[in-house]
Specification:
The complex is a heterodimer of chains A (524) and B (427). Chain A has 524 residues and is α/β, with parallel strands linked by helices. Chain A is built from 21 helices and 18 strands. Chain A starts with a helix and ends with a helix. By secondary structure, chain B is an alpha+beta fold. In chain B, helix 10 packs parallel to helix 17. Classes of the chains: A alpha/beta (524), B alpha+beta (427).
Chain lengths: 524, 427
Amino acid sequence: MTGFIAVCLAWLWLGAASGCSPGDPDPVTLRVLASSELADMRPLLEDLRRDTGVTLEMDYRGTVDASNALVPGHYRHDLAWLSSDRYFQLKVKAAGHNIEKPLSTSIMRSPVVVGMKPATADRLRRATPGGQISWADVADASAEGSLKFAMADPRHTNSGLAALVGVATAAAGTGGALRAEDVSCDRLRGFFAGHALTEDSSTRLTDGFVRRQDDLDALITYESELLSLNSGGKLRRPLEIVYPKDGMVLSDYPLLLLDPAKRAAYDRMVDWLKSEPVQKKIMERTLRRPIDPAVPRVPVLREPVGNALYFPDRQEVVDRLLADYGDPQRDKPAQVIFLLDFSGSMRGERIAKVRATFDGLSGADDSRSGKFVRFYRGESLTVMRFGGRVLDDRSLTYDGQRDLDRLRGFVASDDFDTSTAIWSTLDRAYTKVAGIVRDHPGQAVSIVLMTDGENNAGMNLDAFISRHEARPQPARAVRTYTIRYGEADTKELDRAARATGGRMIDATAQSLLSAFKEIRGCVK
Amino acid sequence: MVIGERPVIEEPRLAVRRPSSSLWSRRSLLIILLPVLAAVLTGVAVLAVSGNILLPFERVVTLEGKMASKRDFFEDEEVQRLLLKHHIRVHITSSGSREVAIGDVASYDFVFPSGQPAGDLITSQRAAKNQYVKVHRPFVSPIVLATYREYAETLRAAGIATPQHASGKGRPLYYVLDMQKFLTSIDEKKRWNDIGIQNLGITNANRILAQGPDVCGSNSAGTYLALVAFTWHGENDEVPDTDTEADDRARAIKHLLEQGLPAADVFRTYLSPEGKGIAPVVVAYEHQYLTYQVQYQAESMELDSQRVLLYPDSQFVTQPQFISLTREGERLGELITRDPELRQRAMELGFRILDPSGEVAGDQLSRFLRQRHIPVPSMEGDNTRSSMPRLRFLERMISIVGDCPAAGTSAGTSAGTSAGTSPGLPE
């Protein structure tokens, strides 16, 4: 007690301290640009004002929108309080070297994870060796149509962006931060086939999920949001919180000082927020994890968060992801046209491998990459079998297991031809494509041509290329990926693919399944 | 006093709890304080005699300081108490050490970068402009990698780490890390799963690496960079001697330091209950870890045997530079270098304090740790002696690895913290 009084006395004498001084520090009002999910801190702001004299005027926005509103040198607020300042940091870094970043202090933490209906989680767990659910399992179930999830718009919200970076990092599977070459491939269409609800804020997303809880299976958002929802009594059954085995992205709610003249108030506020009782109160009220290592976690927060994924350090990587997957309405599912060589040399083991490949892409391949690049709900698939002529040409849109069975039927035929008309077949495919893109502008279409021999019937490659060049632009824009198998002509396949903007993949040095997967998601 | 603002990419540092008295409402404070105030005022002479309080009749000077992880020292309540006896309070602005150096320090009384390169940047710039500058080097601390038992044991099983000889009985707290092998696994893009972390009940598909603060802002990250460059290059030709060599070496090691966007405050994250998932291996200073164990031991009467240290086999000792920029600042510098109580407290916070000749002062730290029942990390000089590149070249390397501009330095400035266990003091 003596010590305490002595210290208070000293502070009194100086008239400078906030704690011991009977005179409150100067009241001050600060304008704060804040992430919308921080609205749940509102009840604490009154305590803040009472204890420190700091009143906050909150201006809530989506985190990504807020980050975009922060222009160094032209700040319009005194502070910014974001769920994460990573996007802002990337922007500052990309903008050039001489911009000073504002003083920044993390206040609390929450990972972006998956809340799943218990039945869904059980089903996924049973199908997974080791029983730990990964992003790949979520992607697989989404592609298959058995999982519909809610996720906020990554162009506006931090929870959406963190989820997108998380799933993309898991899909790339390098174990490191995403690089430009990792996001140039389309690996997330299967995952997004399950994206059934989006919103511009995580709060509205949660509300939307509650309204549609009967037809949705999962909610991808902050752990804190999921825990609050579970204890809020609005769900018929609480969600199970799944910390994906392949990692998650964490938010740390930094408080940024934009106006250096407000430093004293900022210091008071930070000291207060980081003090043990307030950290504890934040935890109990919002179910975010304290930044203070020493505050004992409430039981629901003792669950390990799993491994943090490394966050990309280049803005162009994140922007590319946002451009490709940001818009939930972005595009209709893609259409793929497979041209499969059914000449005599394919008989036996080779055709067996083609059939196994189609099985693999239909969901039998349970590798991580297989789960990401498999056929997905809504995708249109066309199989043209050819020899000296097109043997048959059948299409379907994947809508359920029945369609996968039909697809298997497309490649099950044992009707082989004696010659190989590669370029006439490809030419015919482009005639079909020209019709598709004319009738459905904007439809994503690609062609995959697999052959194990040389062209010995129909038009030659030169003839194909000159006819191709004469086609209307939208048809020419459709790429052909060629798969070299058996004794096929490397040079010709490479040249044809390049002429359409695609490329050749050699399946003689790797499995046929790997070659198909490489086309679908640049995965090996 | 107007304070210049700096971005904060903090170095690993230990959170030091502040008293949370600010929660008290004004009214309740008055109720408590008014009666006791009268009593206290009458007894003030008695209290003053005890030496524990400031004489209220003398002015206390508040000094503005800017630093990174060494704020642990000034945020320590005992250090604050000792300084009040000398009528000094310290107000701290956090900043990475290198950021301290490349930013404007005009509004500060002192700065306390965690290592010599940043210190030299400041002193050379001040000297060139004929501004007040004095340097004190009160203590040193080696750069280490802080990790968890499972990770250390996985490295041990993979032949990359070995327990330190003098670790004492029981499970070792300290390991020696074979940097060459460690970096080779990073170079081979190995993941924790590839070297058998599952055998210890953990799954981690992330690449093996040591997380550090932003190399563009921090001393520990810059020192770790130098350590990596030194190890990766081999031991025949220790440091780069030309711009081209520096650039080549930086490019050769850039991929070994890739960690995506660096996180702030990695050491505190490491200490948190979530640390094992978020920051399983982090670049830190030995003193941060020792302070933590001392506190842990004091609170729970046992060691935290889950958190352990990896000492790189080629040891880099960092030497914090207390740089006074004003005469008031210099008074503080003198105090922390010479005042026996402050020196004692620095040692209790895990620093290896230096005697006036610049040698590590005896084995005081060992004795202190033994008293607190904390195993003593091996301090003998069986480490490879290695040295930091000269400042100009280190700056070029930081600039390439971190993708940030090099600070302007005069070619002759030396960043040469000599390393090993007895860092010599230049000049």
